[in-house]
Model the fold of this input.
Amino acid sequence: EDKVVQSPLSLVVHEGDTVTLNCSYEVTNFRSLLWYKQEKKAPTFLFMLTSSGIEKKSGRLSSILDKKELFSILNITATQTGDSAVYLCAVEGDNQGGKLIFGQGTELSVKP
Amino acid sequence: GAGVSQTPSNKVTEKGKYVELRCDPISGHTALYWYRQSLGQGPEFLIYFQGTGAADDSGLPNDRFFAVRPEGSVSTLKIQRTERGDSAVYLCASSDVGQGAGANVLTFGAGSRLTVL
Done:
């Protein structure tokens, strides 16, 4: 059964800290892994990873995939209060038509 | 439209009633997805449309749940004889690729929060 496990489930840090969020997965015929940020209701897209070892970067956020060990990490440096959100990891298997399997999410709270 | 639009944003109903939730995807997106998100959980897949047809409905929990997309654009999720356990946020997403067409990026709507009393 396809499965995504995220850790930690929740995290409280102070502004300026660096955080690392973890995502491990099991999926039949892996196609891609995606990270989303969910602040209120709609998850918003952050990264899509398909190849091992290639870091994706956007500002203070970066992510990398390890297809051998079946995990991904999402790093956020110099955190700000606006980074407070639930971060969702999802995987897509081949021939799944875009059906994503989501993890439980990591709730990040950044205190001033 | 510019984004995925879902209505109503909030729906409170009584146990046993029928509800309809509507999703208007991004214009031109052929693939449309329904997910359900319970408190403290990640979104759970319900059903996926490619055009007008349901390509994968394996996530629908039981036959009280049904979804349609008659013209390949707007979709309606229908829930009959609602139960308290149906209370959740129902998220709709769309994308411009689908089966066998490459890795997908789904764009989500803000969701419809359903509360069954």
